[in-house]
Design goal:
0% of the residues lie in helices and 55% in strands. It is an all-beta fold and 295 residues long.
């Protein structure tokens, strides 16, 4: 059978107490046996942080100080924040202090950082917490095109780069970058950790227009803020033209003078292209009649 032994622990500290328990059953038979109870002294942890508000990727130094009633505790401290382990098994120094300098504190408002003391043969385990706020790090996005002028429907290759703030690894920049020409989306770049923030896409959908701005917008992710960059260059996309010809008069005798007029039109607004320039040649059959000096 089983039973419970209750009572008051006689003391706390470094001593192990050995008790002898005698039990008698219903028949009067008795049996005795010893058991050992070790009473650990309580420990106390205090936790300090070099800052309680920072941005992702910046170093926070956590300092745990462990104290006890019977001398300086020994052992180790593990530091965590949320579900992330920051430093594991940091050995206490001769003053009972363990430090953890880390850039891995997760992004969050009011994130709880905890220092957990493992205990030892004298002191029981204990822990302390500190509330910290880690904000997303900033980014800078750049974009360039492999040309400044193309005909409508031609391939254009766009190269983008997302650079996190100083101290944040470039591999942190994951997500998507949307590339636009003249306000119209032409392609989307997907970037993963191994890309180190760099990516590219090729598109034939740039709209017709003159000296159009090229922009790239990064989406951001759990650790980084989004950002938008504009290329230092522009992109001109030329479209097709139309030419209308009139003759005056339309019927003449041989040798009479005829005036030919050509009207050349470019792509319609809002392309922003200037009016067509250049020359126009007039011909009849295989005979060239005249060439205008300029439009």
């Amino acid at each position: 059978s089983t039973g419970a032994l209750t009572g008051t622990v006689p003391a706390t500290g470094t001593t192990s107490f050995t008790y002898s328990v005698k039990a008698t059953d219903a028949t009067g038979s008795a049996a005795a046996g010893p058991f050992t109870l070790t009473v650990l002294a309580p420990s106390t942890v205090t936790l300090a942080a070099s800052t309680t508000s920072t941005t992702y990727g910046q170093t926070i130094t956590y300092t745990a100080t462990v104290t006890g009633s019977s001398g300086t505790p020994t052992g180790s401290v593990t530091f965590t924040a949320g579900s992330a382990t920051l430093c594991t098994g940091v050995t206490l120094n001769g003053s009972g202090v363990a430090k953890c300098a880390t850039t891995a504190t997760p992004v969050g408002t009011g994130e709880t950082a905890t220092a957990q003391y493992s205990g030892n043969a004298i002191y029981g385990p204990s822990q302390a917490s500190k509330t910290v706020t880690v904000m997303k790090a900033s980014t800078t996005t750049t974009v360039d095109a492999n040309t400044t002028s193309v005909a409508q429907g031609s391939d254009v290759r766009y190269t983008t780069t997302v650079m996190p703030a100083s101290g944040v690894p470039s591999s942190t920049a994951t997500g998507t970058v949307v590339v636009k020409v003249g306000g119209s989306t032409v392609c989307t770049v997907g970037i993963v950790a191994s890309d180190d923030g760099a990516g590219s896409c090729t598109s034939v959908t740039a709209p017709v227009g003159h000296a159009q701005a090229i922009t790239a917008s990064y989406s951001g992710n759990a650790d980084l803020l989004g950002s938008t960059g504009t290329s230092s260059g522009t992109l001109t996309v030329t479209g097709s033209t139309t030419t209308a010809v009139t003759a005056s008069p339309s019927t003449v005798a041989s040798g009479a003078t005829v005036t030919y007029r050509a009207t050349v039109g470019g792509p319609s607004s809002p392309s922003g292209l200037p009016a067509p320039t250049g020359t126009v040649s007039f011909s009849a059959g295989s005979t060239t009649l005249c060439t205008t000096p300029s439009l």
